[in-house]
Amino acid sequence: MGKWFIRIIGVLLIVIIASGLILYFTDNRYSLSIKSYYAMKKATSMDLSFESKMGMGENSIGITGETQLTTSPKVSMTEVSMILPVLGNLNIMDVYTSEDKIFHKYNMSFLPWQEGMPILQEDAFNPAMFGELDMNVELLDILKFASVLDKGSEGELLEYYTTDFFTEEEFKAMLVSVLKLDETQVKDWNIKAYKISFAFNKEKKELERISIAFDHDISEVVLSNQFMLTLNELNSISDIPVPEGLPLSQP
């Protein structure tokens, strides 16, 4: 009886290990989440791009830009452009961070670099948040969240998304904590619908894009909002130089 019990336990262990290996080495929400988590956790640098828009269809305005950051030392450089429906994208400012200091410069030759957080009232989203990506999240929590996502399109990118996991108040709290939106504005929004999606690159086995889209109304006018963050490259940057005109003694 004892030998049969040991054999059964052995077979179960083999099945569990084999299932885990198959799950890890195939493209699915769990293996891609695990690989992405550790890749970002260990990354020494990141090359990112972002886009944030608000409005109604073709009349949407917002910002777009590129961020490069290193983790040791903690330095980042962000170029920010405004999205204009007719004129296209217009560079409006640069943001530079060094450890716990933030500097910004508007795109006017006579304006110097200034210390402090820039404010973009027309968009509410502040790109200075990318000076340091917060990876203080547990892998188990990520896997739990991944388990409730719906599967979307599949091609070079494998998408998973949710439109109903968060309550309206939880979603608002997420906008404030993750995107650093103004809490006093967000609390008055009536969220009509939302979609949070994650797109994984099947060739790189890594997360490539995160997007958050939602509709809210103000005085019975429905506005569409979209935020998209793209991870272009990891570990591709060795050094971020101090911008011209920023005194070396400041950072």
Please describe what this structure looks like.
- This protein is an alpha+beta fold and 251 residues long.
- It has helices at 2-24, 29-42, 139-147, 168-179, 183-186; strands spanning 45-55, 61-71, 74-84, 88-98, 101-106, 114-115, 150-154, 157-162, 190-201, 206-218, 221-234.
- It has an eleven-stranded antiparallel sheet with strand order 6-5-4-3-2-1-11-10-9-8-7.
- Strand 7 and strand 8 form a beta hairpin.
- Residues 10-25 have low confidence and may be disordered.
In short:
With 251 residues, the protein is an alpha+beta fold.
Shape: globular
Sketch the topology as an H/E string, one letter per element: HHEEEEEEHEEHHEEE
- The tally of beta strands, per DSSP, is 11
Amount of beta strand: 35-45%
Please mark out the parts with pLDDT under 50 across 5 or more consecutive residues, or reply none. Answer: 10-25
Number of helices: 5
Cα gyration radius (Å): 22 Å
Q: What do the pLDDT scores average to?
A: 81
Instruction: Decide which structural class fits the backbone.
Output: alpha+beta
Distance between the termini: 71 Å
As laid out across the biggest beta sheet, the strand order is 6-5-4-3-2-1-11-10-9-8-7
Query: Helicity range of the residues?
Result: 10-25%
Please outline the major beta sheet.
11 strands, antiparallel
Topology:
Blueprint: H1 2-24, H2 29-42, E1 45-55, E2 61-71, E3 74-84, E4 88-98, E5 101-106, E6 114-115, H3 139-147, E7 150-154, E8 157-162, H4 168-179, H5 183-186, E9 190-201, E10 206-218, E11 221-234
Antiparallel strand pairs: 1-2, 1-11, 2-3, 3-4, 4-5, 5-6, 7-8, 8-9, 9-10, 10-11
Helix pairs in contact: 2-3
